Amino acid sequence: MRLTCFATAMALVVAGSCSAFASTAFAATGPIIIATGPIAGFAFPLGGEICRLYETPLQDKARCAVSATDGSVENLNRLRSGDLALAIVQSDVAADAVNASGAFTGAAPFTDLKSIVGFYAEALTILVRADGPVKQVDDLKGKRVAVGAPGSPEPLFADFLSGLEWSKADLDGVIEMPRNEQIAALCDGKIAAIAVTAPHPNGFVREAIAACHAIILDLAGPGIDGAVEAHPAYAPAHLDLSVYGTANSAVQSFGPRAVLVTTAKLDNVTVDRLLTGIFKHLEELKKSHPALVGLDANAIAAPAGLGADRHPAAVKYLVDNKIGDAPAVE
After folding, report:
1. Distance from C-alpha of 264 to C-alpha of 293, rounded to nearest angstrom
2. How far is 182 from 126, CA to CA, in rounded Å?
3. Which residue from 6, 76, 138, 243 has the highest number of Cβ atoms inside 10 Å of its Cβ?
């Protein structure tokens, strides 16, 4: 995979700050920083490719670098402080920043936060045995389902149950279990399903499929509809399972999206250039990471699950280029 400005990114990791580039307004000819996540994660290579596509077309002095970070909360705090221009964050965490909830409880609402476009979903993934008792969502009733490690349950699974108008009482148990014990428990029949939130392809999912022919349950139906309606920061997700070589080629799920965000201070020219790089070179972007392979222009432009109002320049670009269904700025 290609990473733009890799040396610069590593320097930023060591320094732990991009304050030298901070300003009250970010111009297209000045350096911009995209905060991502851990180097081993999905957001870091995505940010690197966005940077490469931002720099390449005009061959001018515009510069972009990626910064490896601890993730969405750090990224949003640095955006708010003006330490950087852009970040890739989970849409539900972005919504928390806008609403001063979750990790941002007690802070002022981040009303200047603006989304640009969204990418892959952190999707609720329910693994079951192909030869087991669960063939469809209704079969989960009365079954034991493993979620996260003790103290770290899967909130998306709880939201899915609420969307179905079920409660934990409809199951035989929601078991908090360390991840390294879950696959063996599924294969041995001690649990009927595993619920995990993950982008795809995912190593844990691949391991479960190899261990005992696990499959990913199709969640299509009222559970997704109810969860997305109750949580606007979530979006429906189409999971292409060809990356796992499984017989069922696609299933439906939902979850927060990885979203490119900025603030109202970012100038229109920079937003337009970023989007030109993404959409004019979409096939190159998709090759940069397996999680992006199944995306198309309409999926990236989709208004669902962004977590924050779209930047006005992004709305204009999408409308002018007839991409997706961009909403009006609220």
Report:
1. 30
2. 12
3. 76
Tell me which residues of the chain have a pLDDT lower than 50: 1-28, 328, 330
Query: Of the candidates 290, 158, 176, which has an alpha carbon nearest to the alpha carbon of residue 234?
Result: 158
Question: Phi/psi at 89 (nearest 5 deg)?
Answer: -140, 165
Q: Which two tokens stand for residue 163?
A: 């969307």
Decide if 6-120+257-320 and 123-255 have a common fold.
yes
Cβ contacts of 7 within 8 Å, gap of 6 or more: none
SS3 sequence of 175-243 = ECCCHHHHHHHHHCCCCCEEEEEECCCCHHHHHHHHHHCEEECCCCCHHHHHHHHHCCCEEEEEEEHHH
Angle at 221 between CA 216 and CA 222, to 5 degrees: 125
Is the domain spanning 123-255 CATH 2.170.120.20? The answer is: no
Q: Do 193 and 140 touch, CB atoms closer than 8 A?
A: yes
pLDDT tens digits, one per residue of 33-83 = 999 999 999 999 999 999 999 988 666 778 899 999 999 999 999 999 999
Q: What per-residue confidence (pLDDT) applies to 57? A: 65
Tell me, what's the pLDDT at 185? 98
